UniProtKB/TrEMBL annotation:
<keyword id="KW-0507">mRNA processing</keyword>
<keyword id="KW-0378">Hydrolase</keyword>
<keyword id="KW-0269">Exonuclease</keyword>
<dbReference type="GO" id="GO:0006397">
    <property type="term" value="P:mRNA processing"/>
</dbReference>
<comment type="similarity">
    <text>Belongs to the CCR4/nocturin family.</text>
</comment>
<dbReference type="InterPro" id="IPR048821">
    <property type="entry name" value="PDE12-like_N"/>
</dbReference>
<dbReference type="Pfam" id="PF21171">
    <property type="entry name" value="PDE12-like_N"/>
</dbReference>
<dbReference type="InterPro" id="IPR036691">
    <property type="entry name" value="Endo/exonu/phosph_ase_sf"/>
</dbReference>
<feature type="domain" description="2',5'-phosphodiesterase 12-like N-terminal">
    <location>
        <begin position="117"/>
        <end position="221"/>
    </location>
</feature>
<feature type="domain" description="Endonuclease/exonuclease/phosphatase">
    <location>
        <begin position="249"/>
        <end position="551"/>
    </location>
</feature>
<dbReference type="Pfam" id="PF03372">
    <property type="entry name" value="Exo_endo_phos"/>
</dbReference>
<keyword id="KW-0460">Magnesium</keyword>
<dbReference type="GO" id="GO:0046872">
    <property type="term" value="F:metal ion binding"/>
</dbReference>
<keyword id="KW-0479">Metal-binding</keyword>
<dbReference type="InterPro" id="IPR005135">
    <property type="entry name" value="Endo/exonuclease/phosphatase"/>
</dbReference>
<keyword id="KW-0809">Transit peptide</keyword>
<dbReference type="GO" id="GO:0005759">
    <property type="term" value="C:mitochondrial matrix"/>
</dbReference>
Length: 561
C-alpha cells in the first residue's frame, strides 16, 4: 500500500493520505514541526476507530454478544521505519521523519511512503478539435514537468452498423492510437469521433505519479482545407541554425474585438460567423505559429485567457516559453515567446506609456514639453498602450545578449501625434535598457505600430529623428497640434521591408506591422514571403475560414553580424 506525503517548505502543514486496513481512506494535515510521535498516535486512534466500526458491523452480522468490539478497538501499534529499516525516533519533526521510501506500519499492515510524488493538478483538452490541426492539452503538474509526463491518446470506437459501440457499462469503447506525444494531430479518419487522453505525471527521474484521463467534449471536426500559412510553412520546416534568429511579429486579433455585433456586421461582414469564433481561430493560430519553428514570437491583441489556456501551453509543447503583459483597461495585451534551448531570460522591463511618462525621470523632458499641450497630453495619458521588453541571453554563446521589444501603438487614423509621443517613450525606455543597463546590446523591436511607411512614426524610427514641423504633429487638426523635435540613437531597419499590406480588411489595407532590427549588429538572412494577394482575397478579405486574424504575420531570419 502507498502512504502519500505532500510536504512543501513554504507551507506550515504536510498532508498524509493512505487507506486504513478497514478500507477507509484517510487524509490528515499535520504541522511540519510537530514531533512524529504525535502524528503516529493520531494514526493509531483513527485505526482503532476504524477497527471498532468494522467490529460493530461484523457483530451485527453475527448477531451475538461478546467482547469483540472492545478487543478490536485496542489501538494497533503504529511505527515509522526509515529506508534502512531503523525505527524513526518519535521526537523527530514530521518534515524530517516522513522521507521517500520510508515504511509506515499500522498493526500488521505496511505502507511505502511516497514523498511529493509527481501529481497532475490540471488536465484539459481544447473545446474544438479539427482534423489536421494540433491538439495541445493544458497540463499543470506538481513535482513533475509536462515534458517528462507520459501521454497516451485514444479515439472512440466507430459504432458498428447496428448502432453505438459501447463497453459493457454503456460508455463508449476506446481504441488506443499509436500516438504517445504531448501534442496529437487527428487525421481525417477521426472526424466524428471523440478523443481521450491519459496522462501519467513524471519528474524526469523515472518517478511517476497516478495517471489522469480526460475526454474531449465533442468530436473531431473536418478542417478548412488549405490555409494561407501552408505555403509559408514550406520555408520554416526546421528551426534555423545557431547563429540565426527567426523572428515573428503578429497581431492575432483579440476575441474581445472579433466577437462583437459591430465586428460581425460592419468590420468583417464577409467572414463566416463560425470562423470568427475563438475556438476555431485558436486551432488555426496554434498550427500557424507552431509551423513557423520560430525563436522569437511577438504577438499583439492577445486575450489573457487565450495566453493562459491556449497559446502558452501549446507553444510550451513546441519548445517556447512565453511572457504576457496586459493593457490595464482592456482584457488583451502583448505576449512574447522565446525558444528555450536558444535563449534564457535575463530580465524583463515592461511599461505602460502613460504611467512611465508621468513617473519615470527618463521621460521628464518629454513630459514637460507635452504639458504645454493639455489636450494632447490628456489623450496620451488616457491610452492604455504598453511596451513589453525582455533581455535574453544566447545559450550557445552567453556573451551574446539581445533586447527584444514588443508593442501595439494607438489605433486611431488621426492619432499620428499620439503615436509619435508613444514611440518616443518606447525608444527612450529601450535606450535605457540597451545602452545603459546592458551597454550596446542589439535590439529587435516588433509590433503593430498602426503606422504606414509614409507616416511620421515610421520615418522617426527609421531615420532617428523628426522635425517639429512634421505634418503628423497636426494629424488631428490645429487645436490638437503639439510641435516638438524628437531624436533617438538607434540605427533601425525594417527587416521585412515595406510590404503592400500587413492588415487587409473590407474597408482598409496597408502596412502597419514591422520587425525593426539594429542594423549595426544584425542582418537579414531571409524574409519569409507573405501570402499571395490571391490567397488573401480568396474569401474577399481577412479574417476568413483559412486565416485567423485581420493581420498577416511577419517572419524573417536574422543573423548576428
Amino acid at each position: 500500500e502507498r502512504a502519500v506525503v505532500r510536504c512543501v517548505p513554504s507551507e506550515p502543514k504536510l498532508s498524509l493520505r493512505f487507506v486504513l486496513p478497514d478500507g477507509s481512506a484517510k487524509h490528515m494535515q499535520r504541522d511540519q514541526a510537530e514531533p512524529l510521535g504525535r502524528a503516529l498516535a493520531r494514526i493509531a486512534t483513527n485505526a482503532a476507530k476504524g477497527r471498532a466500526k468494522a467490529a460493530k458491523k461484523s457483530k451485527k452480522a453475527r448477531a451475538e454478544g461478546g467482547p469483540a468490539g472492545e478487543a478490536a478497538a485496542a489501538a494497533p501499534a503504529v511505527r515509522l521505519f526509515s529506508r534502512d529499516g531503523e525505527a524513526v525516533a518519535e521526537e523527530v519533526p514530521n518534515a524530517a521523519a516522513w522521507q521517500d521510501g520510508a515504511v509506515l506500519q499500522i498493526g500488521e499492515a505496511q505502507y511505502r511512503v511516497e514523498r511529493n510524488p509527481p501529481a497532475l493538478t490540471e488536465l484539459q483538452l481544447p473545446r474544438s478539435l479539427l482534423a489536421g490541426f494540433p491538439v495541445c492539452p493544458k497540463v499543470s503538474a506538481e513535482f513533475a514537468a509536462p515534458q517528462h509526463c507520459l501521454f497516451r491518446w485514444y479515439r472512440e470506437q466507430r459504432p458498428a452498423a447496428g448502432g453505438e459501440a459501447a463497453r459493457g457499462d454503456g460508455g463508449p469503447a476506446w481504441v488506443e492510437t499509436a500516438a504517445a506525444d504531448r501534442v496529437f494531430t487527428p487525421s481525417n479518419a477521426l472526424v466524428g469521433l471523440r478523443l481521450k487522453l491519459r496522462c501519467t505525471p513524471g519528474d524526469g527521474t523515472q518517478r511517476y505519479g497516478p495517471p489522469r484521463e480526460v475526454e474531449s467534449s465533442g468530436p473531431v471536426e473536418a478542417g478548412p482545407g488549405a490555409c494561407t500559412f501552408d505555403s509559408r510553412h514550406l520555408y520554416t520546416k526546421k528551426v534555423c541554425g545557431e547563429g540565426s534568429i527567426r523572428a515573428v511579429s503578429y497581431n492575432i486579433l483579440a476575441d474581445t474585438y472579433a466577437q462583437t455585433e459591430f465586428s460581425r456586421t460592419v468590420l468583417y461582414p464577409y467572414c463566416a460567423p463560425y470562423a470568427l469564433e475563438l475556438d476555431y481561430r485558436q486551432n488555426l493560430l496554434k498550427k500557424e505559429l507552431a509551423g513557423y519553428s520560430a525563436d522569437l514570437i511577438c504577438l499583439q491583441e492577445v486575450d489573457k485567457s487565450v495566453f493562459m489556456d491556449s497559446l502558452a501551453p501549446a507553444l510550451d509543447a513546441f519548445g517556447l516559453a512565453g511572457l504576457f503583459r496586459i493593457k490595464e483597461k482592456q482584457h488583451e495585451g502583448l505576449a512574447t515567446f522565446y525558444r528555450r534551448d536558444k535563449f534564457s531570460l535575463l530580465s524583463q522591463h515592461d511599461i505602460a506609456f502613460s504611467e512611465a511618462l508621468l513617473s519615470d525621470p527618463l521621460h521628464k523632458e518629454l513630459c514637460d514639453k507635452l504639458a504645454r499641450y493639455p489636450l494632447v497630453q490628456e489623450k496620451v495619458l488616457q491610452r492604455s498602450s504598453v511596451l513589453q521588453v525582455l533581455v535574453l541571453r544566447s545559450t550557445a554563446d552567453p556573451s551574446r545578449k539581445i533586447c527584444v521589444a514588443n508593442t501595439h501603438l494607438y489605433w486611431h487614423p488621426k492619432g499620428g501625434n499620439i503615436r509619435l509621443i508613444q514611440i518616443a517613450v518606447a525608444l527612450s525606455h529601450i535606450k535605457h535598457i540597451a545602452c545603459d543597463l546592458y551597454p550596446s546590446i542589439p535590439v529587435i523591436f516588433c509590433g503593430d505600430f498602426n503606422s504606414t511607411p509614409s507616416s511620421g512614426t515610421y520615418s522617426f524610427i527609421n531615420s532617428g529623428g523628426i522635425s517639429e514641423d512634421h505634418e503628423d504633429w497636426v494629424s488631428n487638426g490645429e487645436e490638437e497640434k503639439c510641435n516638438m523635435p524628437l531624436s533617438h540613437p538607434f540605427k533601425l531597419l525594417s527587416a521585412c521591408g515595406e510590404p503592400a499590406y500587413t492588415n487587409y480588411v473590407g474597408g482598409f489595407h496597408g502596412c502597419l506591422d514591422y520587425i525593426f532590427i539594429d542594423k549595426n549588429a544584425l542582418e537579414v538572412e531571409q524574409v519569409i514571403p507573405l501570402p499571395s494577394h490571391e490567397e488573401v482575397t480568396t474569401h474577399q478579405a481577412l479574417p476568413s475560414v483559412s486565416h485567423p486574424s485581420d493581420h498577416i504575420a511577419l517572419i524573417c531570419d536574422l543573423k548576428w553580424k
